[in-house]
Amino acid sequence: MLNGKVLDGKALSAKVREEVKEKVNAFVGRHGRPPGLDVILVGENPASVVYTRNKERTAKEVGIRGALHTLPGTTTEAELLHKIDELNRDPNVDGILVQLPLPKHINEERVLDAIDAGKDVDGFHHVNTGLLSSGRSALVPCTPIGCMRLLAESGISLDGAHAVVLGRSNIVGKPVAQLLLKENATVTIAHSRTRDLPALCRTADVLVAAVGRPELVRGDWVKPGAVVIDVGINRIERDGKFVLVGDVAFDEVKEVASAVTPVPGGVGPMTIAYLLSNTVDAATARLSRLVRHKGVFLEAAR
Ligand code: NDP
């Protein structure tokens, strides 16, 4: 039996944040101000409150100007769109993130599409999803980029490998599948209607689980030596305590896979690190477009 290597997302995310810090310093040197990330939270969903505070705090830690705009749960769609418009026009705002889920009376698609595509650091705007699916450069959703970096760290060659992605959501399943395809993997996307999921998973060299079902993927679903990325975050009660588990039965899978991500401490920390990375990249790209627009292209290209 192979003894799986645990892919430490916490340590790797610290490395990514160091890389971001260096890019932030270069940006400040060139533009005289830090990149700015503005996060909008509507309502008081407890998980969202924690996530948005973390995003603001971690942004500040790498030198990004982080701001959290907290709007009441009664905010109308028109009021939220007005706020987004204000941030779209603000030249010091480089990244805008609207925390999901939104209250039911607000149309999520309309809101995400109202964000300036160049400031869409979550990569959910239809322009960015379109660019990604046509293989062109775009702001790519953070969790999928984090998964790809973890795969790179595992040392697996994706070229020609069979990758099975469990889940077809717009925020994880579909974009991770696009990125795997870009790296020349042969990609199968599975979902709730897929027949004989265990048999399909056993054909995977790379398995990415993003279904939101606690410990769905068992040890005997995994081909010996496969690399398994567990995106799931599920809060369950075990032995009278609340614990976080992934979509993968970690202890079983660790015995079979060549590498597997833990929950917590795997994909989660990578998501925030790549949000910061997207912010500095969006800022750099937008300002170089602006500088070019004013005719001083050489300055931007330096
Ligand atoms: P969604 O609920 O949007 O999508 C879940 C997907 O899984 C759907 O495509 C669904 O199929 C499929 N699915 C559900 N049940 C099964 C099943 N029994 N067998 C096969 N497929 C199934 O979830 P998200 O993509 O938003 O998130 C997935 C998980 O990842 C969640 O646990 C979430 O908390 C976590 N997450 C973690 C992040 C991180 O930073 N680590 C970031 C984002 C999400 P169908 O389309 O047919 O309904």
Short description:
This protein has 302 residues and is an alpha/beta fold. It has 11 helices and 11 strands.
Keywords, separated by commas or semicolons:
302 residues, alpha/beta, Rossmann fold, three-stranded parallel beta sheet, 11 strands, 44% helix, disordered C terminus, binds NADPH dihydro-nicotinamide-adenine-dinucleotide phosphate
Describe the structure.
There is one protein chain. This protein has 302 residues and is α/β, with parallel strands linked by helices. Among the domains are: 33-116, Leucine Dehydrogenase, chain A, domain 1 (Rossmann fold, 3-Layer(aba) Sandwich), CATH 3.40.50; 142-267, NAD(P)-binding Rossmann-like Domain (Rossmann fold, 3-Layer(aba) Sandwich), CATH 3.40.50.720. Helices cover 44% and strands 17% of the residues. The chain is built from eleven helices and eleven strands. It has helices spanning 9-31, 46-61, 77-89, 108-114, 126-133, 142-154, 173-182, 197-201, 250-254, 267-293, 297-301, and strands at residues 5-6, 36-42, 65-71, 95-98, 162-166, 186-190, 206-209, 227-230, 234-238, 241-245, 259-260. The protein has a six-stranded parallel β-sheet. A three-stranded parallel β-sheet has the order 3-2-4, sandwiched between helices. The chain has a two-stranded antiparallel sheet with strand order 9-10. Helix 6 crosses helix 7 and helix 6 crosses helix 10 (267-293). The longest helix is centred in the last third of the chain and has 27 residues, at 267-293. The chain is globular and about 55 Å long. The chain starts with a strand and ends with a helix. The model is unreliable at 297-302 (pLDDT under 50). The structure holds NADPH dihydro-nicotinamide-adenine-dinucleotide phosphate (NDP).
